Write the structure tokens for this entry.
Amino acid sequence: MPRSDGRLPDQLRPVEFFLDIAPHATASVLIGFGNTRVICAATIQDEVPRWMKVQGVPGGWLTAEYSMLPYSTLDRKDRDSTRGRPDGRSIEIQRLIGRSLRAVVDLKKLGSRTLCIDCDVLQADGGTRTASITGACIAAAIAFNRLLEKGRLTQQPLTKKVAAISAGIFKGETLLDLCYEEDRDADVDCNLVLTEDGDFVEIQGSGEEATFSQAQMDAMLVAGRKGVSELCALQQQAIEGAMKPANSRDLQKLADFFGKKP
């Protein structure tokens, strides 16, 4: 059965990266998973949290924050500052982003520094957490490379790339990289975080008023592995592209990207 956007069941949405979208960060990337668009920024600070100093914990730290801008959804979403408290979903997702990155970063090689990851959703069409993790890894890798070039780091803290993708059961079929419509109506929704060599970092899955079988779980894992493998290859291209200066074609591509209609 064809999907609403014409994709095959195991096909990713178009994935696009635009580097250094936030010039004051150490590194940043605007990532597009179809109509989902997230800015992921990595900022290196030359200090560690107070609790590390008090407890004498060696090395550095990595923390993440996630937010959805008010206009990122069909119905305006109030800012956390307006509500007076953080949104529970945002807290859960930023903790997931932090865990995912810490799984592939050697914090001792970071030294007495903190890597701050900020993920801000500009437009949401399903998969904002998976896009955030995938983009955050690119931003972190580029930030580390820049510190290595400047001699501020002597060893690469990133041990391997990490990426994330959604999979689900929709009308009895296993689908990869669910858009909002598919995610909303799916019988089963699963988010998978894996390293580039196929090791799992985290699996989040649940039935939506339904149960799912071992065979369906296995099918989602197979689809997820395929998707993450493709994403890691795209990540590598983006990281290598950070070594090249932006040109007029890059700027036109970005203008076209923002000019797309959902």
